């Protein structure tokens, strides 16, 4: 993994231009503290800041084909690189890097190889034979990437906004699942799964198929030559990731390098719900657990740094990024270079509490599709940038291409929340791992109510942020909000406060246009707000805004549902895999 920056076709091959590209590349140094480099071919520049994870000794970039006519700079992890190498028997690889296959695949297949890659990636490939280039981003947008255009006809690519602002006339987020070709001068979607059309699937629910797909997604991500761990909040998603990782770590190459004892990490205010649950899960699955505490003031002090790094003014993203940012710094100080985490499950399974109000399976499914398509603007952006701020990589098995296709092919009727039947949010995922004979997790953790990360770290956290903003944004300032910020006008003092900071770092129109907006309740899309008329008067991204659903909802207390039904007894192989 690394931070990449490329300037292509700028009609300037001078030393001054090279120095400028190096200067911009250094803005991404936090993403890759292990090595840096710049490759120049005429008026095209490929720069990188490397975080060395696979083949740290020889995998420096750019990566080339045999005669160095094709150069690649890439931020990514290609989990099937060993299989792909076997499909390229006539090629000689210079390094053991998982990304070394990209240039060779291009030689064999041209621009139509991207769908062969199983992993997360953003890359720029320069073909010096005809001075053409292609740019591509992974299916969901787990890696961050932006594209910009200069007045001189140049195309700019960067892992972060800060590599582009000031030098491009216009820049924007590079769309996930797309490829940009210099030959066609346009984007082309390479990722076209069945669910993307939002057509309602009809496949029956198969808990074992779902379980196998997820276990496979976790295991393939245990590809490393450096120390790693798991982010464990004590919620369902991170707990399942931790449990599966702990169960299958032995026998992997990762275990051969670093042992079979998994390290887990959690962050929260003193007494936070997540801390207690995470500690219990860690004890149950046998991890070496690290618990980090922070105060509301610690978080407030980090607000400006966080907004600079995550490059958004979206309220819920900032709320959740701050504790993740603080925890990532602690984790990196222990010598860990990547973590595996639980992002993406709520979007796939309708795990957010507002899904309790979905009127039918059609709207439920379409909302999950909308949420997955927008992940690169929210949770993927947070997980990527708040960890990479300290040179730490986050891996997300729930967003595995194969797993998503299995999960999104299930008839959404099975995902619907039906309290009268004991089916709470993400029931299909909980039931798939409810194995009475070989349990993955304690039953009450497996059926723990959804807590958004910004709530689970401590309910006082969001209240503290609101209180801080109240001191810095006056009622008079709010009266002028629409005039000062006509695009995505902030409607709360907290949103106004974050926007002021963002505009100071990124004052360009392109920067503010890169951030999503619109009404939301408990992380819903604007469309889903229509599901409950009362929500329009209670627009807040916190899960506690889901009135009548969250057990600690604002001004409301309801009893959480604890289903008692379990999955039927399963046969289990000697390796612990259900068969």
UniProtKB/TrEMBL annotation:
Pfam families: Asn_synthase (PF00733), GATase_7 (PF13537). The gene is as1. One of its GO terms (molecular function) is asparagine synthase (glutamine-hydrolyzing) activity. InterPro entries: Asn_synth_AEB, Asn_synthase, Asn_Synthetase, AsnB_N, GATase_2_dom, Ntn_hydrolases_N, Rossmann-like_a/b/a_fold. Its EC number is 6.3.5.4. The active site is at residue 2. Gene3D superfamilies: Glutamine Phosphoribosylpyrophosphate, subunit 1, domain 1, HUPs. The record marks 343 as: Important for beta-aspartyl-AMP intermediate formation. The lineage of its organism: Eukaryota, Viridiplantae, Streptophyta, Embryophyta, Tracheophyta. Residues 2-185 form the Glutamine amidotransferase type-2 domain. Pathway: Amino-acid biosynthesis; L-asparagine biosynthesis; L-asparagine from L-aspartate (L-Gln route): step 1/1. It comes from Phaseolus vulgaris (Kidney bean). GO terms for cellular component: cytosol. L-glutamine binds at residue 98. Keywords: Amino-acid biosynthesis, Asparagine biosynthesis, ATP-binding, Glutamine amidotransferase, Ligase, Nucleotide-binding. This is Asparagine synthetase [glutamine-hydrolyzing].
């Amino acid at each position: 993994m690394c931070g990449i920056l490329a300037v292509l076709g700028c009609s300037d091959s001078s030393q001054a231009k090279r120095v400028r590209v190096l200067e911009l590349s250094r803005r991404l140094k936090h993403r890759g503290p292990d090595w840096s480099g710049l490759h120049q071919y005429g008026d095209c520049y490929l720069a990188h800041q490397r975080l060395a994870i696979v083949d740290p000794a020889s995998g420096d970039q750019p990566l080339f084909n045999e005669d160095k006519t094709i150069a690649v700079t890439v931020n990514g992890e290609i989990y099937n690189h060993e299989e792909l190498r076997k499909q390229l028997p006539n090629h000689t690889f210079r390094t053991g890097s998982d990304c070394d296959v990209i240039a060779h695949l291009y030689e064999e297949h041209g621009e139509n190889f991207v769908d062969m890659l199983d992993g997360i990636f953003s890359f720029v490939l320069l073909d010096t034979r005809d001075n053409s280039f292609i740019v591509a981003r992974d299916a969901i947008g787990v890696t961050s990437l932006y594209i910009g255009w200069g007045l001189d006809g140049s195309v700019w690519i960067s892992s972060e906004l800060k590599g582009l602002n000031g030098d491009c006339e216009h820049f924007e987020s590079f769309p996930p699942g797309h490829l940009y070709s210099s030959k066609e001068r346009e984007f082309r979607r390479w990722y076209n799964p069945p669910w993307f059309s939002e057509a309602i699937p009809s496949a029956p629910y198969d808990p074992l198929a779902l379980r196998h797909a997820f276990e496979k997604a976790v295991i393939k991500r245990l590809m490393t030559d450096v120390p790693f761990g798991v982010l464990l909040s004590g919620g369902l998603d991170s707990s399942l990731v931790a449990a599966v990782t702990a169960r299958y770590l032995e026998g992997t190459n990762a275990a051969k390098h670093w042992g079979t004892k998994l390290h887990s990490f959690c962050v929260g205010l003193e007494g936070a719900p997540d801390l207690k649950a995470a500690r219990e899960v860690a004890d149950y699955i046998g991890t070496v657990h690290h618990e980090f505490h922070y105060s509301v003031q610690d978080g407030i002090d980090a607000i400006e740094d966080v907004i600079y790094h995550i490059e958004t003014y979206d309220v819920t993203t900032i709320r959740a990024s701050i504790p993740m940012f603080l925890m990532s710094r602690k984790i990196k100080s222990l010598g860990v270079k990547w973590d595996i985490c639980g992002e993406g499950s709520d979007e796939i399974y309708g795990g957010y509490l507002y899904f309790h109000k979905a009127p039918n399976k059609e709207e439920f499914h379409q909302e999950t599709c909308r949420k997955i398509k927008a992940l690169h603007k929210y949770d993927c952006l947070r997980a990527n940038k708040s960890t990479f701020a300290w040179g730490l990589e986050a891996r997300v098995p729930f967003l595995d291409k194969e797993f998503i296709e299995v999960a999104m092919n299930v008839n959404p009727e099975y995902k619907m929340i039906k309290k009268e039947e004991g089916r709470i949010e993400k029931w299909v995922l909980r039931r798939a791992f409810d194995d009475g004979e070989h349990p993955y997790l304690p039953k009450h953790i497996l059926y723990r109510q959804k807590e958004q990360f910004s709530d689970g770290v401590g309910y006082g956290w969001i209240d503290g942020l609101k209180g801080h903003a109240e001191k810095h944004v006056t009622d008079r300032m709010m009266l002028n909000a629409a005039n000062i910020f006509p695009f995505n006008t902030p409607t709360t003092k907290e949103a106004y406060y974050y926007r002021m900071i963002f505009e100071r770092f990124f004052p360009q129109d392109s920067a503010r246009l890169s951030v999503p907006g619109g009404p939301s309740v408990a992380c819903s899309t604007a469309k889903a707000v229509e599901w409950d008329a009362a929500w329009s008067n209670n627009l807040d991204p916190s899960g506690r805004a889901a009135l009548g659903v969250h057990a600690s909802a604002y001004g409301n207390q309801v009893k959480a549902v604890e289903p008692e039904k379990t999955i039927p007894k399963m046969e289990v192989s000697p390796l612990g895999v259900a068969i």
